Amino acid sequence: MPMDKTELINQLRIDRSPTPPPRRWRWLLALAAALVLAVGVWRFLAGTTVRSLRTATALPVAAVEAVSSVLDATGYVVARRQATVSAKITGKVREVRIEEGQRVAAGEVLADLDDTDLKAQLALARAQLAAARSQRAELQVQLAQARRDEKRLSELLPRRLTSPQAAEQSASSRRSLQARLAAQDRQILVAEESLRVAQVSLDNTVIRAPFAGVVVAKTAQPGEIVSPMSAGGGFTRTGIGTVVDMDSLEIEVEVNEAFIGRVSPKQPVQARLNAYPDWTIPAEVIAIVPTADRSKATVKVRIAMSTKDPRIVPEMGVRVGFQEVAQPRPAESVAGVAVPETALRRAGEDWVVFVVADGRALQQRVIPAEVRGVNRIIRSGLAAGAKVIVDPPADLDDGAAVAVEP
User: Which band of pLDDT confidence, cut at 50, 70 and 90, is reported for residue 404?
Assistant: First the structure.
């Protein structure tokens, strides 16, 4: 049967309904969406992460001391007065009363040694002294009796009531007892000195601080053997601990002998500890040690710090700048503000600093001028009192959230 024309026309129409995508394209679309979401979250977290950074205040140039450094050097903080405290005798440690960081006074007890044997020796010396004194008392009684006998016989001898031999024996006995008494007096002196020696040995079991200071090392524990000399194949300690007089701290630097002519006694110095680079410590040259190290071609220079601070400890690294007072500058040459040189950073052909405002690091373009010590003069682009970030990280972005270190 021939088909209806309408049905034939419907069969010739094009199906324009959307074709569902293959399954693999669905996975690719889902992966792309997840990647876009992850990038957005990362950017959001990066913009809200608070970084803690050091800042410095931009100061008017007039407030910055017009001092220039003629020579820079590095060195260490050293103590002129320190001691590794040990015992005068060899003994076993009974108690250690110190810890690192503890302050001690002059004469304070640091440790005790076992004194059992020395107490026994002291008791023996006392007994020997008591026995010597008892013997002396006995000899005194005998000598008194000998003197009475000699006196009676000397009175009887003229009347021929005794023999001359008996009188001579009585006198000899008296002289013998006198000699024995004198010898016993010397024995008493020996016993007294023995008692003093025993007492000193007992006192040496108590180890005391030679001066006031801070304990920087504790090198012995109870039960160990200590000795003033190294012995025992390394199993004997030679010290209880090390005490440093913090008031005797100074700086030692080694200056190349080619530049030692720029250093002189009483010369002002600006010192900065490596641990606190933003803290400037006023100092002064004490002396130039009159000898050179031929292996390094350097001369040692001693520097006194005018500041006593618990943050300054021995063996700290320090950078110093030997200063020279600069000549007065014209008023127009001191316009602008001063910031630490490490606050500046290159941004293409421009110099920029990061200013902290409302908890954000804002990048500002500045025009720098000359360097004065560790500071850099900013001609324009920065106002006095602004908080600039010192040593800004290379990945610090404009507008990043930051916090100021205390």
Answer: confident
Report long-range pairs for 97-100 (Cβ below 8 Å, ≥24 apart). 98/215, 98/218, 98/240, 98/241, 99/215, 99/218, 100/215, 100/216, 100/217, 100/218
Q: Would you say residue 210 has pLDDT above 90?
A: yes
For the domain spanning 82-112+205-244, the CATH number is: 2.40.50.100
Strand partners, 299: 255, 292
- Domain 51-64+330-404 bears CATH identifier 2.40.420.20: yes
Choice among 72-81, 134-143, 156-165, 180-189 with the minimum mean pLDDT: 156-165
* pTM (predicted TM-score): 0.55
DSSP for 331-386, please give it.
GGGG-SEEEEGGG-EEETTEEEEEEEETTEEEEEEEEEEEEETTEEEEEES--TT-
Q: Which helix (H) or strand (E) holds 65?
A: none
The CATH architecture that domain 67-80+246-325 belongs to is Beta Barrel (2.40)
Q: What is the pLDDT of residue 331?
A: 43
Domain residue ranges of the chain, discontinuous segments joined by +? 51-64+330-404, 67-80+246-325, 82-112+205-244, 116-202
Percent of the residues in the chain that have a pLDDT greater than 90, as a whole number: 43
CB atoms within 10 A of CB 81: 14
